[in-house]
UniProtKB/TrEMBL annotation:
<dbReference type="InterPro" id="IPR004646">
    <property type="entry name" value="Fe-S_hydro-lyase_TtdA-typ_cat"/>
</dbReference>
<dbReference type="GO" id="GO:0046872">
    <property type="term" value="F:metal ion binding"/>
</dbReference>
<comment type="similarity">
    <text>Belongs to the class-I fumarase family.</text>
</comment>
<dbReference type="Pfam" id="PF05683">
    <property type="entry name" value="Fumerase_C"/>
</dbReference>
<feature type="domain" description="Fe-S hydro-lyase tartrate dehydratase alpha-type catalytic">
    <location>
        <begin position="6"/>
        <end position="282"/>
    </location>
</feature>
<dbReference type="GO" id="GO:0004333">
    <property type="term" value="F:fumarate hydratase activity"/>
</dbReference>
<dbReference type="InterPro" id="IPR036660">
    <property type="entry name" value="Fe-S_hydroAse_TtdB_cat_sf"/>
</dbReference>
<dbReference type="InterPro" id="IPR011167">
    <property type="entry name" value="Fe_dep_fumarate_hydratase"/>
</dbReference>
<comment type="subunit">
    <text>Homodimer.</text>
</comment>
<keyword id="KW-0004">4Fe-4S</keyword>
<keyword id="KW-0456">Lyase</keyword>
<protein>
    <recommendedName>
        <fullName>Fumarate hydratase class I</fullName>
        <ecNumber>4.2.1.2</ecNumber>
    </recommendedName>
</protein>
<feature type="domain" description="Fe-S hydro-lyase tartrate dehydratase beta-type catalytic">
    <location>
        <begin position="305"/>
        <end position="495"/>
    </location>
</feature>
<keyword id="KW-0408">Iron</keyword>
<dbReference type="Pfam" id="PF05681">
    <property type="entry name" value="Fumerase"/>
</dbReference>
<dbReference type="GO" id="GO:0006091">
    <property type="term" value="P:generation of precursor metabolites and energy"/>
</dbReference>
<keyword id="KW-0411">Iron-sulfur</keyword>
């Protein structure tokens, strides 16, 4: 089993940098469905570019490489203690190489272990089987989509849909609602795995297991197969679209499983996965530890590679105005911007996410932020041979987590633009209007695309918060994002949420009776 560790390292690298063909095919089909020139089409073409760049650069598709979760089947007698040790070593090595972002933090102190190892990380599950080979499946599911997982306990009342009872139609309503409540925040268009039954723990486990099914498979249970195709049809009428920008494609895959429950409990558990659906698997020779075959590498019939659509700048969007801005930005420049405009940034921007926002409420900033731009981003960074920091991946993180702090910080420091994804709430919208600032939505998961726009790392503060949470000072060029909340009280997110709720309500009447 000498080669086992190297095989796992190869599996991690493939999973983080190269999306499987079935996932690519789903994204390609979505791109074909969206009208050219819309915000959704722009987002999907950036996503396609990003997928290609990650493969070419052998770098993470998204900066959030998630919680590595291994599902392993072993022949009777295989040494699981040795395998777990090798897996941990491979995870640490992948982190050193910038294939994984250091993502394991102490839950109480927030301290990052730096190597993705710690209590509960990585997750490794074993199961024995009678075959004479080892099968290892890996999923790298990021935090933004994990936060959009949801569990329903039937019967329940659902906004837009009314009562969901303890039957197939109640299940139908829960699943539709799960897609609605995610909006664009889990980097839609997404994939869902659904677990019906079990208890709260096994229900979620079953939901996650569904994510290991191929996008193009057909459920062997005819009732569940019908439900899956119904959900695909209905969820794509909600109009949430890629990144919550509105559009015809909201859901790329739906896989449903069922297990028994006890009479008093009736759970429907939904695992939401972003478009950056990084799962891969291998079979391994138990004697040598070498890879025998890959599980998700066969191309669906119509497979053609992503074509390059544009260099690292936004493809043209119909009817959208485009502004080139360089910080420090004035209030006058900001007040000209409207929801739907494209902003191209050149110059210095600063990353800041959860730890920094909490800190800035009670402390001064280490750099002058007036007229400045804050980027909600936790990048993957590596030091090169000369000891200089380099960006390996740098897409936006979910902004709503900063909602409790953002308005106050905009006022206190005179910030003019916040870049993130998924949109923010009413408090931030009010602060944007009052102070003269905008929210710019970057394309979630497009970590290679944005890393390519970063010309230089000018410095870093708060490295003690860990690499993702530190404040990185980045010089960017051609950094494109869309105004989704402006300084006049308009929010695309409010509009899409409202219109998608109206559309959801159309699915109130029973379908499976
Ligand atoms: O942690 C991150 O970088 C992003 C996270 O996956 C998110 O979607 O918010
Ligand atoms: S940023 Fe988006 S694409 Fe990346 S892990 Fe989070 S939800 Fe997924």
């Amino acid at each position: 089993m000498r080669a086992f560790k190297d095989s796992i390292l190869e599996l991690i690298t493939e999973t983080s940098t190269n999306l499987p063909p079935d996932v690519r095919a789903a994204i390609r089909a979505a791109k074909e469905r969206e009208n050219a020139g819309t915000r959704a089409a722009l987002a999907l073409s950036t996503i396609s570019d990003n997928i290609r760049m990650a493969e070419e650069n052998v770098s993470p598709i998204c900066q959030d490489t998630g919680l590595p979760t291994f599902e392993i089947r072993v022949p009777v007698g295989a040494n699981q203690i040795e395998m777990s040790r090798d897996i941990r070593e491979a995870v640490a090595e992948a982190t050193r190489r910038g294939i994984l972002r250091p993502n394991s933090v102490d839950s109480l102190t927030g301290k990052n272990t730096g190597d993705n190892l710690g209590p509960g990380t990585p997750v490794i599950h074993y199961e024995q089987w009678e075959k004479d080979e080892i099968e290892v499946r890996l999923i790298l599911k990021g935090g933004g989509c994990e936060n959009k997982n949801i569990q329903y306990s039937l019967p329940c009342e659902l906004e837009g849909l009314g009562r969901a009872g303890r039957d197939l139609d109640g299940i139908r309503k829960c699943i539709l609602h799960s897609v609605y409540q995610a909006q664009g925040q889990g980097c839609s268009a997404g994939f869902i795995g659904v677990g019906i039954g079990g208890d709260r723990t096994t229900g979620y486990q079953l939901a996650k297991q569904q994510l290991f099914r191929r996008v193009d498979d057909v459920n062997p249970d005819p009732d569940l197969a019908k439900l899956e195709s119904y959900i695909m049809e209905a969820a794509n009428q909600l109009g949430i679209g890629t990144m919550g920008f509105g559009g015809d494609v909201t859901l790329l895959g739906c896989k449903i499983g069922a297990i028994n429950r006890i009479p008093a409990s009736f759970f429907v558990s939904v695992a939401y996965n972003c478009w950056a659906f990084r799962r891969q698997g291998v079979t391994i020779d138990p004697k040598t530890g070498q890879i025998r075959s890959w599980l998700y590498k066969d191309e669906p019939k119509d497979a053609s590679k992503e074509k390059k659509t544009a260099p690292a700048a936004a493809p043209a969007m119909k009817k959208s105005r485009e502004w080139r801005l360089t910080p420090p930005i004035s209030e006058e420049q900001i007040r000209q911007l409207r929801v739907g405009d494209v902003v191209i940034l050149d110059g210095l921007i600063h990353t800041g996410r959860d730890a920094l926002h909490k800190y800035l409420v009670d402390h001064e900033a280490p750099v002058d932020l007036s007229g400045g731009v804050i980027y909600h981003c936790g990048p993957v960074m590596l030091k090169n041979k000369e000891g200089k920091w380099e960006v390996k991946a740098a897409g936006p993180t979910t902004s709503i987590r900063e909602e409790p702090y953002q308005g106050e910080i905009i006022r206190k420091f005179g910030i003019r633009a916040v870049i993130g994804k998924g949109g923010m709430g009413a408090k931030t919208l009010a602060a944007l209007k009052e102070h003269g600032a905008v929210y710019l939505n970057a394309i979630g998961g497009a970590a290679q695309y944005y890393a390519d726009c970063i010309e230089d790392v000018e410095g870093v503060h708060f490295l003690e918060f860990g690499i993702p949470e530190a404040m990185w000072h980045l010089r960017v060029k051609n950094f494109a994002a869309i105004v989704t909340m402006d300084a006049h009280g308009n929010s695309l997110h409010v509009d899409v949420e409202k219109s998608s709720l109206e559309k959801l309500a159309k699915f109130k009447d029973p379908v499976f009776v």
